[in-house]
Design goal:
The chain is mostly helical and about 240 residues long. The protein has helices spanning about 5-15, 35-50, 65-70, 80-90, 95-100, 105-110, 115-135, 140-145, 155-165, 175-180, 190-200, 205-220; strands at about 20, 25-30. The chain folds into 2 domains: about 65-165, Hypothetical protein, domain 2 (Endonuclease III, domain 1, Orthogonal Bundle); about 170-245, Helix-hairpin-Helix base-excision DNA repair enzymes (C-terminal) (Endonuclease Iii, domain 2). Strand 1 and strand 2 form a beta hairpin. The longest helix is centred in the N-terminal third of the chain and has 18 residues, at about 35-50.
């Protein structure tokens, strides 16, 4: 069986003979692993300087509220979610409240977040399992969170990192996906593989803050269509093909 490093080495070199992998780091063949590790450290330092107080933008007061808000945030802005949850969290206080209401009523309450039928199924299924399997409390373990309907690693990482202060992984949302690839921290194309790549090169004690900083950076500066490269704190060490002057 190939080691993870050799797997990446063979896969990447098959696709691009100018690249190699050392200790999980993608780099030109004429660059050393120390050079690339130094570049990662510089990226982390500049993100910390630019976003020293980066936090989760979803308003909540407990793990259940954060879990529901994160489910609602799929294909929806945090701003819209916060508008919806302002009234939602007054109406629904416990897993039993969400699980016991008619689906049509909850659908109407969250309609403006989009995909409201699927989100209703996820929220109600999740809350039923929390009530029946976890004694009414949101579990604080990755393996248990992943048992909940509609909860994948992104949502679980948000809940664990923000509500429980546990660094179990790195949140890979649309912003982290885009920015990490632009910064050449990964060449993978799925959130699961991108998270795996980032976890190899980002120190564990930075996983939570790095996630928040990357999300904020992607939202404010490294935008999908019109990146504001002239204002970017990592512009001088970014090699993205779609950089703008």
């Amino acid at each position: 069986m190939l080691s993870l490093e050799n797997y990446y080495f063979e896969k990447i070199n098959f696709q691009d003979p100018t690249l190699s992998v050392h200790n999980g780091l993608i780099m030109p063949k004429n660059k050393s692993s120390a050079d690339q590790a130094n570049r990662v450290a510089r990226i982390l330092e500049r993100l910390e300087q630019a976003y020293p107080n980066a936090q989760c933008a979803l308003r909540h007061s407990n793990p259940l509220e954060l879990l529901v808000a994160t489910i609602l945030s799929a294909q929806c802005t945090d701003e819209r979610v916060n508008i919806v949850t302002k009234d939602l969290f007054r109406k629904y206080r416990s897993p039993r409240d969400y699980a016991g209401v008619r689906p049509e009523e909850l659908e109407n309450d969250i309609r403006s977040t989009g995909f409201f039928r699927n989100k209703t199924k996820s929220i109600q299924g999740t809350c039923r399992m929390i009530q029946e399997k976890f004694g009414g409390s949101v579990p604080g373990v990755m393996e248990e969170l992943l048992l909940l309907p509609g909860v994948a690693r992104k949502t679980a990482n948000v809940v664990l990192g923000v509500a429980f202060k546990k660094a179990a992984g790195i949140v890979v949302d649309t912003h982290v996906y885009r920015v990490s690839r632009r910064l050449d921290l990964t060449r993978s194309e799925t959130p699961e593989n991108i998270e795996r790549d980032l976890m190899q090169i980002i120190p564990g004690d930075k996983w939570i803050s790095f996630s928040h900083q990357m999300i904020l950076h992607g939202r404010n500066i490294c935008k999908a269509r019109k990146p504001r490269c002239s204002e970017c704190p990592v512009n001088s060490i970014c090699y993205a093909e779609d950089k703008v002057s």
